[in-house]
Every structure is written in C-alpha cells, then in structure tokens.
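Running co-folding for zinc ion.
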Amino acid sequence: MALSKSRLSQWLLPRHLSVRTFDGDGDYDEDAGELLPAPRLSVAAAQAVPVAALAGVLAREDVEAVAALAARLKRTRPDARQCNGGAWTTVYLSCGRAFQRELPALASRLVRAAKRAAADQMGLDLRGVDLRVRCVEHHEMAAGGALADECHYDSGSVLTIDVMLAAPGDDFDGGALWFPGAGGARAAGLARRGDAVVFASHRYHAVRPVEAGTRRVLIVELWEGPERGCPHRCQSATAPCVFDDVGSPAAAGPRKRFSWPPRRGAGRVHSAAE
Ligand SMILES: [Zn+2]
C-alpha cells in the first residue's frame, strides 16, 4: 500500500520536534544530529507508516543460536552489555560484527525480509536506498521492566526489526509492544516465539510493563550509515566510530569530519531501542 501525499501531509511536524537534533529519548543533542543521516521520513510522517507483521521469521534453532551468542558476549564482552534499569539489560550482538559474522544467513534473511516488508506491507519505496546494519541488540526485560517513554523512536535509522525470542504467555506476561502515535495500536504479530514486526524507525514505540517472567527480543536497526561493529547504538554515520574495534572500508567515511577528541554525542551509549 503506497502512502498518499495527502495522507502524509495530515501529519505536521510539531515545532518543538526536529528530527535531526533529538535522539531516541527526545533529548536535545545537536552534535549527534549532524552525524546522523538525513531522515527519509519526518517523525510526524513516520507515525502514518503501517507496521509490518512477519510470522515465524525465526525457527527454534535460530532463536537458540541468538541466545547462545548473547550468552557468550555477556561473558566475553562486558562493554557490549548495557543496563537500562534493574529489570532490563541489552547486549549488543553486533559488537565486533559477531552477529553478522557468526550468523550470516540469519542476518541476511532478516534484512531481506525487512526490505520486502517495507515494500509490500508498509508502502515504502526503498529501491536504491542502501540499508546496512547499524546495531543488533538482544534485550532481556524482567518483571517490572518497561519502555514507558511514549515519545521514544530510533533516531537516525530507517527500519527497525523486532523479533520475539521468548514465548508470550509461557515465558512472560505483559510486555506488549505498542505504538503511541496514530491511534496507539498494540503491535499485532509478536504472538509467538520467532514472530517479528518491522516498522519505520521514526515511529513512536513503547513496551508495556512486564508483569511476570522474562521477555526477550532481538532488535535490528537498519540505517544509511556504514555497517557497524561497535558495542553500542552508533551515533556516527558520517565519521569513523572510535568504538568500532573491527573497522571496515565502509566505516572509513569522509575523513574531513573526523576529529579528536570525539565530539559530544559521537560515542553516546543510547537508551536501548525496543
Ligand atoms: Zn559506534
């Protein structure tokens, strides 16, 4: 379904929101804004983009492989672990490009599925847009954990893929993903382990409190920056990231924007995207 211009024009960008100068928490961050790709969609326009549902995108063995990688990185790369409050931790599976190198078939399957969903279910024409992995995150949220900020969005990314790794109703209760903008719909499509949703990254999204058990999800964000292997949600699409310990030709970027010490925001550990 293509989004008509008239439909998008109903969503006016609020004066107090500037896509390029706010991070995903809504905090003003002018330096990070300069280092992120220019947005394809304003935050306001993104609220009208449908959420795509992909049933059974991961098989049981895929889920187990992701869990094993997360467990190993937790032990071996403490810098890839982030605590978002007592009940919620994140491990960056893209740290050292571990996810991309060790699970390449799974990684490319998810990226392909997201691009197809963008065209078929979301009405986004991304032909000619070179999307790469910005970050791959493993989230564990125990009882009491939530992503409560209703203005949270994944600033600087184009598509966000959210894959359910736990069994709703068995492994945890509560913890529903929902979309505060454009009617506040609960996400359909995360009913079973292995299901995924894909949404425009600038769409507001939140998670209801987990009431019991542990909710686990895999998040992949695609952006127009270089593929990253740094142990965080990279804020630097146009300069080499000083935290990227692997490096790649694509990560070199335009040298003129590189400076030392890193500018404020370049190495910022972002509040985990959900
Ligand atoms: Zn980085």
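Result summary
Residues 43-223 form a domain with the Jelly Rolls fold (CATH 2.60.120.620).
Strands lie at 52-54, 81-83, 88-92, 132-142, 159-164, 172-174, 177-178, 196-200, 206-207, 210-223.
Job closed.
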